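User: Structure please.
Assistant: Input sequence and predicted structure:
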Amino acid sequence: MVYLIDTENVKSAWLEALITGEEGNVNSKDKIMVMYTNNTPKLQYDEIALLLEHFSEQIDLRKCQCGKPNALDFQIIAMIAVMAKENVDESFTIISDDTGFDTAIELYKEAGIQVKRSGVQKKTEVNDVDASENKRLSNVQLKELRKKQREFLTNRCKIPKTMAEQVRKWLEKGLKDAEKGIEKSKAKAFKSGEKVKKHAIEGIKKNWKEYRSIKG
């Protein structure tokens, strides 16, 4: 078996797939052809250590030309044709999540060449499930928070349930508190725009703090 790695597509996930995934039955006679370009993400030191530990005798690093759309894909397909001509009994596995290979693979099969594609999306799919579960839990928490907000607004503010009216009523209450502060002062100086604005802001902040306290 010859494994051809589409590194631009699967990045370094192919390494874990070959060690522990469905393709984790690589034997010492198999060849791993790592097809890479300047666009391929670099391996981390831990990944290089795994590579040397498991496949040091089987790795064939092939730098490919890039700069054109799908350049690496075409070179992988061409490499299979070259190797199949040299050894008609050889079988090939393309490690890639790119389904664009599948049409070419069908043509190879019709010609009697054993080729298949193996993706590495399994790990991604698990993460997607986890993300979906987290989103579901977040929605439940959000629903509970909105329920608490409605209860707070209904019991404490005595205002309608629609958000627009809630905000309007809440602002009106803050401004009324500011006006009361101005009236209590009985000072002409408070008629200046800046001080009216200051008291209005203080009144709004007071109600905003009370409104937000349920999140604590």
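The helical segments are 7-10, 13-20, 45-55, 71-86, 101-110, 122-157, 163-185, 193-212.
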